[in-house]
Design brief:
2 copies of one chain form a homodimer. By secondary structure, chain A is an alpha+beta fold. Chain A has 21 helices and 26 strands. In chain A, the strands form 6 sheets. The first copy, chain A, has a 7-stranded mixed β-sheet with strand order 3-5-1-12-9-10-11, sandwiched between helices. Chain A has a 5-stranded mixed β-sheet with strand order 7-15-14-13-8, with helices on both faces. Chain A has a 4-stranded mixed β-sheet with strand order 16-24-25-26, with helices on both faces.
Chain lengths: 781, 781
C-alpha cells in the first residue's frame, strides 16, 4: 500500500493556516461599499393568527431603507422549491407557526438602526393551540397549521417480502419504541450573506453546501434567472447539513433585488437556533424477528418524524431513516410505515447522517435486545447477519466491497471486547453498534448523477481544480490537491482549488451524502488523465516532442522512459502553442447507479461505507455515568488523508456523543424551545470527550479513487446506540430515549433500583449488568 | 451598416450603475481580517548619499510589525524585470535619486501607527548635484546617478534612405525644437493593494493594466513562482498607462511574503505624485525637407527624453516617439537620433499615446511651419503627403485601411475650415494636426502576439467571457458583452465578464496599445464561433438534433431555418449531455504582424487608426486665450459602442488639452516638483473644456471585429499641436514649448508686440495672424 506519494498521507490542510491565524475570509468578513443591513422580526409565538402588523413607525425611523412584510413580496409563495410540498413562504402571511417564524424584515443603513426599528413594529396575535410532540401531532386533535388537516407532511409505506409470515415463523422477536431528539447542527460560524444587485444581475456572497442549489432557491424567490445569479463562495465555518437549505442568503438576495442595492444580513446565535433547519426528531417503533439460531428473518418499523411547521429536507431525511439501516443485514422481509408530521417547531432538515443516526439508534438497540434474548454475544449476532460482499440487500444495494466483518474484528480487538465480556468490571459496561451509509446517492436531478471537475493548466504551470462542491471543513480542497499531486507529481501545496463560484465551476449537486471523495475524487482523477493526454498530444503535434508520459512532475519519453522536460516547462510549451490559452482537463464521473423505483428500491450509491462503533461506560456511585472510550472502525475503502480522516472520526464521534448524552432541541407544550442558546443547548467540548480510538479498514473499492469510499458521515451514526447498549450492559436498563441526560439516567436508575427492591431481590440484577462500584473514599465524601 | 443589433449601438456600460452608486469595489475597498498596513518613507532629497538610516525607534513603536530598509530585502535588485536596464531597486540602497525615492517601509497594525513610526526613522543625507533638465543631463557635467556616467539610459540612431541627399535637394526646410513636459496620468483612484500570503502562495488584490505582467514583477521580487501567485482584479479607477509598472502592489506583495501575513498599502494623492511612473518629458528637434510643390522628402530628428532616476517604460516610449509619427506621411528618408537621459525625477513611463503625443507636438508644428513657408493651406499640405491605403510606410507599416483623407474632409467640414480661413475673425485662430497610432503592437513576448478569450457556457445558460485583459474605464467589458450578444443573439446585460484573475483567464500581455477591441475583440468573436460549433456538434451527436445554427438567441435548423429551441434550452441540453460540465468556446487571435527588426522596421500592428484634430482659439484683450472648440475625427475602423467611443474622444481631447494648456510635472533646479498636489497640478475640469465635436470614419478593417480598429489613445495625440497651430494662426507666435500656460502665453505675446514695435511696424503682423480685437467696452474696464 506504500506505492503512493501523497495518497493516504497526512498532507497538510491548505486552508489550515488561514483558519488558525484568523485570516480566513468568512461571509461576515465581507465588507462592501454602501451596504444596507437587514434584520428579521421573528415570531415570539409558537402558533398564532396575526391580527395586526403595523410597520409605520419602523418605516419612519431615521436610516431605515425599507420595512417589508409578506404582502410586499411578489413571490412570497415560491419559497422553497426544495421538496414537493410547496408549503413554505418567505415571510409568514396570516399565521405564525413556530417561535422564529419570520414576520417582517427591516433594511437600514446599519444593523443597529435595523434592530432599533424592529422594536417599533407592532404585532398582535391571537394564540392558537400548539402541537409540540409527535404523538400530539399524530392524534391530530390540534393542528400545527390550519391548512394541513391531519398534520401529515408525508407518508411512506413499503413492504418487501412477507413480513407477517416471517414474524409468525420467528423464534424470537425483539425491539421497542425509541425516541431520538431534534438536534441542532451548531456550526460555529453563523449564517451571513451579502447580496449585490447590479443591472439585473445578482452576486451573493455566502456559505453553502450547495452553491447551485441555493442559486435555484434564490432564482425562485427573486424571479432573477439562474444565469444572472452568481454565488460567490466564502470560507465555511461548518455545515453538517445545515447549509443545504438556508433562508438567510435567499432573503438577503431578495432584499438586494427589491432595493436594487447591496444588502447584508448576519444571524446572531439566537437567530441560528430560531430560524435555521435543525435535524428531525423521530419516534421509531421497530421489531426484529429471528429464528432460534439468531438468523434475522424480518423487521417491521413504524416511524414518526418531526417536520416542524414547514417542509425542508424532511421528506428525504425520513426516507433515509426508513430504508438505509436495513441494508446492513440479511432480511427476508421488511416493512416500514413512516410518517412525517408537522409540529410547531422550526422546519427540520439535514444533519450529518441524514436520518440514519435516528434509525440506527432504534435498530442497533433492537438487535442488542435480540442478542440478550438469544443469550448471544451481540457481536456474534451481528456477524451472523451482516451482508456479504457482492450480495444485494433487501432495498437493492449491491456491494462491491463490504468490510463490515473486518471492522468488527478490529473493533473487538481495539476495545478488548472478548476479555471485557469475560471479566466484567462492576460499574462498567461495553456496547456495540454497526453501521452502513452511502458514498453519495443519486440526487433529485437524474441528469446530474455524479460529479464533474475541471483541471486548468495555465501558462505559468499553475494548476487549478475547478469544482462546484463546497469545502465545509471536511478537507475536500486538500484532497483535490493530493489527487492532482499524485497524478502529476507536483507539490500538493502548488495546486489551486476553486470550489463553488457558480460562474466558474462545473455544475454540482453539492456537498452531501458523503460523496465528495468517492464521486468528485474520481472526476478529478479523470481530469488529470485528460489533461495529461492533452499535454502529451500538444507536445507531439505542435512541438514534435514525444510521445511523452506526464508523471512525477515531468514529461518522460513514453518509450525511452527518459525525462525530457519538467512539468512547468511542458506547461509553458503547451500554453505557448496556443497563444497562452489555458488547458482544461475535463473529468466527469457518472456512477452506474439507479435512481430507485417508486418504493425506493435500487442501487443508489456507487459505494457503501460500513463501520462498527463500540462504547465503554462507567456508572458512578453518585448516579451519573461517563463514556470512557469510543472505538470507531470504518471501512473507508482507502484512506486519502490519514490525518483528516481521523479528524472526521473524532468530530463525528463527538457529535454522536452530543446526541446521546447532551443535546435536544425539543419544544415544551407551549412550543417554547427548552434550549436555544449555547448555555442551555450544550455541544460537547474536550471536557466531554471520551478517549476515541479510530481505525480504518481499507477494502479498496473498484470504483472509488484509489479505492476510496468515504468517511464524512459514518462516525456519527452508531455512537448513540453503542453508548445506549453499553449502558444496558452496565446497569441493565434500556435507554430508549435520547439524550440520556444525567437527570434521566439518574431517574431511570432509581426506578430500576426501586423495582428491584420491590421484588425483594436487591442483589439480583439482570444478566450482563455490571455491579455498581462502591468506592470507600468516595462514599465518605 | 444597420445590419447589427448591438454593434455600433450605445449599449449601456455594465459597470456604470455600480460606479455611479458608489457600490463598485476598488482596491482600497478591500477589507480583510487581520490586515497589516504599510507606509513608505519617501526621500525628501532629489539626489543624496544616505549617511545614516536608523529605524530602531520606529521598530520599537507599539503596534509596529516590522521596519524594512534595503538591506532587509533579499531580492532588492530584482526590481523591475521590465526593460533591460536592470537599474532599479525595491528600496534605495546607498543613494536617493529623486524626491519620492523609497528609503524604508513600516508595517504596522494600522495606517496611523505606520505613519507615526515613519516619523521616528532617522535619515541623514549628504546632498549631491541635481540633474533637473534634459540639457543638463546631456551635458553630463553633473550625474543623475554615479553609476551611470554620461546620464544616458538608452540611445536610438536609425537612418532610412539618404537623409543628407534629400535635405540637400530640398526647396524648403522647416522645423525647430519643441519641448513637451512630463505629465502625470492623474487617474482618480490612487494605487492600493492588499496581499495575502498563505502557505507558500500569494493572492494580491489590486488594479493593473497588466495582470500577468504584475504577476511576473511580483514573482521576481518575492521569489514566489508565478504559478503560486494569483492576481485578484479589482475595479479600476483610471489607468492611462500609469498601471503598467506599479511599485505599490509589488511592494505590498513582498511585505506579505516577508511577514507571512495580509498586508495592505494605499497611496495618498501626494504619494501618487511622488512614487509613480509619469510620462516622459521630451525635447525634440525636428526638421522636414520638402520640394517646392510641398512633397515631403525627408525628416531628421534629434530627441531627448527624460527617464527619471530609474528606468521603467522609458525605452519603449522613446522608441515610439522616434518612429511612430513618420508613418503618417510619405518620406523618402528619415533619420532619428533619440537619447533617453536619466534625471533626478521620478522614473517615467507610459501615458495614453505612449510617446506619440510628444512627437506629434513637434512633427505637426513643423509641418504647419512648412505650410507657412510654402504659403499653402496646412490641410492641403498634409493631404498631399498622407500615405495611401495598401502602401508601406518608411518604417514598414502596411495599411489595410487608411481613412486619413476622409478624416480630414470631415474635420474641415465640422470646423468650417475653408470658410474660417477665407474670412478671418480678428483674435481668432484655427489649427490642424493629423495623427496616426496603432491598434496594438507586438509586445516583448514574441510567443504571445495576440489575444485569447474563453467563452464559458454553463448549464443555466449563463455565458461568461474570460479574458486576461483589464477594464480600465475604456469599456472593454461592455464591448465583450456586445460581441457575445451580437453573435449569439442574447441580451448583452446577461453576459458575464471575468477580466483578469490570473487563476481563471487566459494569459494576456495586458491592456495597452489601444489593442483590446481590435485584437481581443476578434478572439471573442472566434470564441463565440467555437462555442456555437461545440453546441451544434453536441446537439447532433448526443441528442440527434440538427445540424443547427445558433443565432438570435436560439438554435435554428441549418437546412430548414426553423427555430428548434431557445439558446437556454440548447445550453441545458448540451450541459446535461456531459453531466453539467461547462463548455468553453476558445478564441485565439494571432495577428500576422512582425516583431520589427533591430532598427524597429516592421509591420507592428494588425491595424492602424488615423485621425485629424482641429482647434479653434480666441485670444483675449487681457493677454489670455481660450480654446473654444476641438474637432476630433477618427478612422475607427468600425464603431462598436457609439456612446463609449465618443466618451473616449471627450476624455482624450480633455487630456490633450491638459498637456498643452495646464499641466507639467517639471522639477526645478533643486529637483523639487513645481506641482505635486491637485491644487498646483491642475487637471482640466468641465470649466476648462472646449466644445468638443467628435466624429468617426468607418473604414471597416478586414482584420478587426466587424471592421473595428481602435479609439482609446488617438484622441489625445494631436490636440496639443492643433492648439499650438491655432495659436500661431491667431497671433503669429510658434509655441514650441508646452504647456502654453497663461503666463507663458502673455510673456510671448508681449515679446512679440515689443519686437513689432522695435521694428516700427506696430500694425504689420505676420501673415495668417489674426488682428487683436479692440473692444471699446472692455478697453474701458
Amino acid at each position: 500500500m506504500n506505492e503512493y506519494k501523497y495518497i493516504g498521507k497526512p498532507v497538510r490542510r491548505i486552508d489550515g493556516q488561514a483558519k488558525v491565524t484568523g485570516r480566513a475570509v468568512y461571509s461576515d468578513d465581507v465588507i462592501l461599499p454602501r451596504t444596507l443591513h437587514a434584520k428579521v422580526l421573528h415570531a415570539r409565538q409558537s402558533h398564532a393568527k396575526i391580527l395586526l402588523l403595523d410597520t409605520e413607525q419602523a418605516k419612519a425611523y431615521p436610516g431605515v431603507a425599507a420595512v417589508y412584510t409578506a404582502k410586499d413580496i411578489a413571490r412570497n409563495d415560491k419559497y422553497f422549491r426544495m421538496g414537493d410540498t410547496k408549503d413554505t413562504w418567505v415571510l409568514a402571511e396570516e399565521y405564525v407557526r413556530y417561535i422564529g417564524d419570520m414576520v417582517a424584515i427591516v433594511v437600514a443603513e446599519s444593523e443597529e438602526i435595523a434592530e432599533a426599528a424592529l422594536r417599533l413594529i407592532k404585532v398582535e396575535y391571537e394564540p392558537l393551540p400548539v402541537v409540540s410532540s409527535l404523538q400530539q401531532a399524530k392524534e391530530a386533535k390540534d393542528l400545527t397549521r390550519c391548512d394541513k388537516p391531519g398534520n401529515v407532511a408525508m407518508p411512506i409505506v413499503v413492504e418487501r417480502g412477507d413480513v407477517e409470515k416471517d414474524f409468525a415463523q420467528a423464534a424470537v422477536v425483539a425491539g421497542g419504541t425509541y425516541t431520538f431528539p431534534s438536534l441542532h447542527q451548531v456550526h460555529l460560524e453563523p449564517n451571513s450573506a451579502t447580496a449585490v444587485y447590479n443591472m439585473g444581475k445578482l452576486a451573493v456572497y455566502c456559505a453553502s453546501q450547495m452553491w447551485f442549489h441555493i442559486r435555484e432557491d434564490i432564482s425562485a424567490v427573486t424571479g432573477i434567472a439562474e444565469k444572472d445569479i452568481e454565488i460567490k463562495p466564502m470560507m465555511i465555518g461548518g455545515a453538517f447539513g445545515a447549509r443545504n437549505d438556508q433562508p438567510l442568503p435567499v432573503i438577503t438576495a431578495l432584499l438586494a433585488v427589491m432595493l436594487k442595492a447591496t444588502v447584508k444580513m448576519t444571524n446572531t446565535r439566537l437567530e441560528e437556533f430560531l430560524a435555521c433547519r435543525p435535524a428531525l426528531g423521530m419516534e421509531i417503533e421497530t421489531w426484529i424477528a429471528a429464528d432460534a439460531e439468531g438468523n434475522f428473518l424480518s423487521k417491521k418499523t413504524k416511524l414518526l418524524s418531526g417536520f416542524g411547521a414547514y417542509s425542508s429536507d424532511g421528506d428525504a431525511v425520513t426516507a433515509i431513516a426508513c430504508f438505509r439501516g436495513d441494508n446492513n443485514y440479511r432480511f427476508r422481509s421488511t416493512y416500514v410505515n413512516g410518517t412525517g408530521l408537522y409540529l410547531n417547531h422550526a422546519p427540520t432538515g439535514a444533519y450529518r447522517g441524514f436520518g440514519n443516526p435516528q434509525m440506527h439508534f432504534a435498530l442497533e438497540q433492537a438487535i442488542d435486545e435480540l442478542a440478550v434474548k438469544l443469550n448471544m454475544d451481540p457481536t456474534e449476532l451481528r456477524l451472523k447477519n451482516f451482508m456479504h460482499n457482492h450480495e444485494t440487500s433487501i432495498h437493492g444495494f449491491r456491494y462491491e466491497t463490504n468490510g463490515i466483518r473486518e471492522c468488527m474484528a478490529q473493533a473487538k480487538e481495539l476495545m478488548g471486547w472478548d476479555e471485557k465480556r469475560k471479566n466484567k468490571t462492576p460499574g462498567k459496561g461495553i456496547g456495540v453498534a454497526a453501521l452502513i451509509h452511502c458514498s453519495g446517492s443519486r440526487a433529485g436531478k437524474p441528469e446530474f448523477a455524479g460529479s464533474s471537475a475541471l483541471l486548468r493548466l495555465e501558462s505559468s504551470g499553475a494548476l487549478t481544480v475547478l469544482i462546484g462542491e463546497s469545502e465545509i471543513g471536511q478537507g475536500m480542497n486538500t484532497v483535490c490537491t493530493q489527487i492532482v499531486a499524485e497524478e502529476l507529481g507536483v507539490d500538493p501545496l502548488s495546486v489551486n482549488v476553486v470550489m463553488g463560484d457558480t460562474s466558474l465551476t462545473p455544475f454540482s449537486t453539492g456537498t452531501n451524502g458523503s460523496k465528495l471523495t468517492s464521486n468528485l475524487g474520481i472526476a478529478i482523477l479523470f481530469a488529470c488523465k485528460d489533461l495529461k493526454k492533452q499535454m502529451s498530444d500538444c507536445l507531439r503535434e505542435r512541438w514534435g516532442i514525444g510521445p511523452v508520459e506526464i508523471k512525477n512532475g515531468a514529461a518522460y519519453g513514453e518509450y525511452t522512459g527518459e525525462k525530457i522536460m519538467s512539468f512547468d516547462e511542458a506547461a509553458v510549451k503547451c500554453s505557448h502553442a496556443f497563444n497562452g490559452r489555458p488547458f482544461y482537463g475535463v473529468g466527469i464521473f457518472e456512477p452506474k447507479t439507479d435512481l430507485g423505483d417508486a418504493t425506493g428500491y435500487g442501487n443508489l450509491a456507487p459505494a457503501y461505507p460500513f463501520g462498527v462503533q463500540m462504547a465503554e461506560v462507567t456508572v458512578h456511585d453518585n448516579g451519573t455515568f461517563t463514556v470512557d472510550k469510543i472505538v470507531s472502525v470504518h471501512d473507508i475503502g482507502k484512506t486519502i488523508n490519514s490525518q483528516m480522516a481521523m479528524g472526521q472520526v473524532y468530530g463525528g464521534v463527538l457529535q454522536g456523543m452530543a446526541g446521546v448524552t447532551l443535546e435536544s432541541l425539543a419544544i415544551n407544550k407551549e412550543g417554547i424551545y427548552q434550549a436555544n442558546t449555547l448555555l442551555e443547548y450544550k455541544p460537547p467540548t474536550f471536557l466531554e470527550m471520551p478517549e476515541i480510538v479510530g481505525s480504518f479498514v481499507e477494502t479498496i473499492d473498484p470504483y472509488g479513487p484509489y479505492g476510496a469510499k468515504c468517511i464524512a458521515e459514518p462516525p456519527i451514526i452508531a455512537v448513540a446506540p453503542a453508548v445506549a447498549n453499553a449502558l444496558y450492559d452496565a446497569v441493565g436498563i434500556r435507554f430508549e430515549e435520547a439524550p440520556i441526560t444525567p437527570a434521566i439516567f439518574r431517574k431511570k436508575l432509581l426506578e430500576k433500583q426501586r423495582e428491584n427492591q420491590r421484588q425483594n431481590q436487591p442483589e439480583k440484577l439482570p444478566e450482563n449488568q455490571g455491579q455498581q462500584r462502591t468506592n470507600p473514599k468516595e462514599a465518605g465524601s
